[in-house]
Request: fold
Amino acid sequence: MSAFKLSPAHFKKFFATMNRATASLGLRGEAAQGYYHMVLKECAHCSSIKTIASAKLFDDCILRFTTDAGDYARAIDYEQDKLKRCGYVIKVMCYQIMQLKRLTLTNARAYFDGVVHQSMQGGATFYSDGNSFYLDFTESRLHKFLQILDTHLRKLKRKHFPTFPLGFNDRVRYVSADTTTGELFLLEDVDKSYYAKLPFCVRFHGQNIA
Reply:
């Protein structure tokens, strides 16, 4: 995965959520500062917000602050939003891998089954129903599978678009420009709802998250 970079919005969200937690816990001054370092150490394994290594670790800090603030409804909603974001990224990556490998729905099922069972020893079920895909995960495998997909997709991007950014991009699709060899691809811009509308469903414990 690419290095996590904090934006101004991240800083604002982090400290606004932390301040709600310290106010709820009655912490001020040095006690509030100690709480800040404790949460970073326990949730993000670092000593400063500037060294948080991933979006997941940042989210873990936010979830801890929200819970400590006693806002359990928001904590539950936030946890659900994390799952939905993760599911959506998995959906987009699956489609882009299929595009760059020129896979049909049938071939894609075999391909992703192989990824699941060889790299993860199970933990997910991949199946199709008509023109749709369904991918059902256990909790322990959701983020692991996302990382595996990211590695596969980056290799394909390096092969076909060596000078382009490798980061996640849900505003493009890859279109084969050479039907003979499949070695030449074009980038085609798509709108923000393109992937959300495609018939691919990511499930978590049987419930749709993307």
